[in-house]
Amino acid sequence: MSISRRTARSVRILGVASATAALALGVAGNALACNIRDFSAAAVCDDNGKGVITVTDTDASGVEAEVSVYLESNGADERLVGKQTVKGTREGVTITFSEAWAPKSEYRVHVTAGKIVDEDITPNLTAPAEAACKTEDTPKPSETPKPSETPSSSTTPSATPSESDSTAPAAPGDNAPSAAAGESNLAETGANSNTGVIAGVAGAFVVVGGGAVYFGMRRRNTSKTG
Q1: Residue 10: what pLDDT?
Q2: pTM of this prediction?
Q3: What is the number of other CB atoms lying within 10 angstroms of the CB of residue 66?
Q4: Exposure pattern of 96-123 as b/e (b: 16+ CB <10 Å)?
Q5: Which domains are present in the chain?
Q6: N or C, where is the chain less crowded by C-beta within 10 Å?
């Protein structure tokens, strides 16, 4: 059975439309698939002024990806800064790695997303030439403690004199009088030392008085016998 020209033309148009639709779907599928171009990295400062490295995923398909950041030195990995997973969106999802980056430091950012992506973000990330982040506070040197104004108990001189100091004997020649041998009781009680002289004078008056009485009585007797 022969195909009419109109039918052949319709089939041709349908084939072209199908091929166009398939090509469009293929392009759309590739556009939605996770791609290394969906990832970007930057060395910035956070809200607290600390250095960080950010990686943003704009994969609209939302495929979970693992992101690893390495510090580079002479073209080789020096150390792993950190590793995190992320699911991107069309608006973009950003993850943060704490890193006090130095000016012009170089970092390699590797992305693995199932069997779709296993690549580095190229070129490598280079930190800004001038550090804009706040540096770590330098600890102040510890101040030397001032010596205590109060002497320690081990070196404090005793304020109270010892018993031996308070009871030390008086030095020779002290004003306190010492009792002399044979001194009368009057001297011991503080009587005047002229008491002996007074007693001698009084005795002389007694003798003189007695003699006067004797001679007076004798004279009277003589006059009576004459």
Answers
A1: 64
A2: 0.49
A3: 15
A4: ebebebeeebbbbbbbbbeeebeeebee
A5: 36-126 (2.60.40.10)
A6: N
